[in-house]
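Listing S7. Sequence submitted for prediction.
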Amino acid sequence: MGVSVVLRVESEIAPLKRVIISNPLEALRRIVPDNTQKYLFDDILYPEVAEKEHKIFAKILKENGVEVFFLEELLTETLKIEKARKWVVQKLLMNYEFKLEFVQDLYQFLLKIPASQLCFYLIAGMTVGEAKLHDKGLMGAASPQDDFILPPHPNHFFTRDPSCWLDSGVSINRMQYPARRGESLNFAVIYKYHPMFTKEKFHIWNDGSEGDGFPLEGGDIFSLGRDFAMVGFSERTSLHGVETLAYRLFEQGPIKRILLVEIPPCRTMMHLDTVMTMVDVDTFCVAFKEFSPKCWTIRPGDSASQLIISEEKSFRVGLSRGLKTNDLRILSVGNTESIFVQQREQWTDASNLLALAPGIVIGYERNIKTNAMLRAEGIKVLEIFGAELGRARGGARCMSCPIERRSK
């Protein structure tokens, strides 16, 4: 099909034109000590400070010519469309027994409330009390009023993971953990019904539904050129998910080569972008001094049902081949002065950087040694404070979903 020339991500460092981000405030207010682990947090954050830091992030983006779209605004605008609201509410309640009185009442309640209020519930969650179900069936009679009927999504400000663009298409990802799967639904309804997207034609590599593939998250997916992608398989992304994505990219898109990178399944390295990001032409910032993961190159075979898979001699060799360069630069957080610096700054996402253009990145101010190292290598680092945002285990790349990156 003819695809949009506007909605396109050519590479990790192509000039960033448009991006989707999300205010963390309301969902973070729902995190308490008893539910931190359930919602994948290590601690409770200071929501108001996190919001201030996020506003600085948005300000830097805008000052550098990036058009910023907030997920909350896109979702609210989408939910004003009757067909879109009905679609998303039916998806929300599809696992309930619709004959139950409280489910019927909840369905009607969600269809009638203002779009802004429904948007709030889809991001910050909705309690029994907020749904006004106190006299409706067993749920209303026995459930505590502050129990969630719709769960909060405090990780939603990491917009990269549920939705990522590769060239002229988007992968709406089926998240590994149930606590984050509602994020994919929110993106899906926006892409399906919002006028900004309905007027454009683009591929949907994955639709984010429970029936579409296996776990796959945007923090593991890198667009490194018009015909080259890199994907990590990690704690959050499965080999089945990568294989499904590879078949679809090869069948419908311009990508003809994928570098698959193995990452240990642990909290400190939950995604490939918590270990490395691209910061300039043929240049990457990596969290470790010695970074030599196993990796494989995947290419299309002679038929649509065949993949050619070959293990690479080394990560550096595989990446250089994909980029078609002999001048690969690896800038390592591990080259800072001590193991303590390396471990602290890797934990606070020193190598999770968002490139605005070749050689210009956004990172956390607290990663002092890494930022100094990058500047010494000619990389311009624009800083956000990140004392609270960084405690949620994600940096500037995690907090952004680019929808347009083009050289021209």
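Caption to Listing S7: primary sequence and predicted structure tokens for the chain studied. The chain has two domains: 8-66+158-405, 74-150. The first strand starts at residue 8 and ends at 9.
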